[in-house]
Design brief:
Order of helices and strands: HEHHHEHHH
Radius of gyration: 14 Å
Number of domains: 1
Number of strands: 2
Distance between the termini: 47 Å
């Protein structure tokens, strides 16, 4: 009983907004392909639909993997739930898209210094720019 109160229920990809699920799947693909020494751009274009958004997402993931305090944790590509890091990233991207900087900072303040939050917010915000 106590464990269920402390650990949040897993977020199921089929139950979240499609943009959040796309961002999670794109993050998984980016991490896996980069580790394997492959270009993630073709897969990112498939998930994100536009070349410029895929390029901007790649830049965001570069910043995420360099500024995250621990290695960015992803689930296997076929996993129907999001890892805590994946869910946190999806929420941060969503807040940046809404230009909700105070909520974005609140979400990441305990984990990242202000310089890293500034970079991530700027890069996540660009995903929504024309």
């Amino acid at each position: 009983m106590l464990l269920s109160q402390l650990v949040p229920a897993p977020i199921k990809l089929m139950e979240i907004h499609s943009n959040d699920a796309r961002h999670i799947l794109a993050a998984r693909s980016w991490c896996i392909l980069r580790r394997a020494g492959h270009d993630p751009m073709p897969r990112l274009r498939g998930y994100l639909q536009y070349e410029v958004v895929a390029m901007r997402f790649g830049l965001l993931m570069e910043a995420v993997t360099q500024s995250w305090p621990d290695p960015f944790a992803i689930h296997r590509p076929c996993c129907p739930t999001a890892s805590i890091d994946e869910a946190l990233l999806a929420e941060a991207i969503q807040l940046a898209g809404l230009d909700a900087r105070p909520a974005f900072d609140t979400l990441l303040r305990d984990m990242l210094p202000s310089e890293a939050r500034n970079l991530l917010f700027t890069r996540a915000r660009l995903l929504y720019q024309p």
